[in-house]
Each structure stands twice: as structure tokens, then as C-alpha cells.
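Meet the record:
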Amino acid sequence: MNRFFEPRSIAVVGASANRSKGGYRVLQNLIEWGYTGRIYPVNPKADEILGLKVYPSIEDLPEVPDLALLVLPRDMVPEALKQAGRFGVDRVIIVANRFSDA
């Protein structure tokens, strides 16, 4: 349970350089609130966000993160969950819009 509540590493899947996107705000909050673990932004269309190296997919990370935050549109969540599972991630928080009709 500690790795869920006190993760040593977090992947932010859907990280964004666009300040108006949730993926940017989540990443920014982790940094500004003083998270001291390793942060792995994941976005296939970026190289760097907020000074952090960005990985094209969760399966390209240098380690299996303790926690993955999926900050994605709902239609992208199932594939992201599959990728996370294949890579060995077993703790995920989904931060997504428009799940009310699910």
C-alpha cells in the first residue's frame, strides 16, 4: 500500500506542454508541491516538459513506476491501461473527463 500512497516514482501518462491541459497541471503540481520521487512524463509528441525528459510510451520508461497517473481522454484510457499492465504497473489513478455516461 505504501507504493500507492508514497510512490517513489510516478508516470504521468498524458503529460502536456499546453498549460491549459490537465496533463500539464498534474505535472506542474507534482513539481511545485515538492514531490521528491522520480517523475516520468509520457507523451508521444513531446521531448521535454517543465525541464523533464518525456517518454513516448509507458513501455519506454527506464523502470516500472510505483504509480501511473492517466490524464487522458476516456477513449484513450483502455489502451493506456493495457500498456501499463503489460509493463508491470499495478497502481493506476485515472484522471479523465466525460466518464459520467460510462
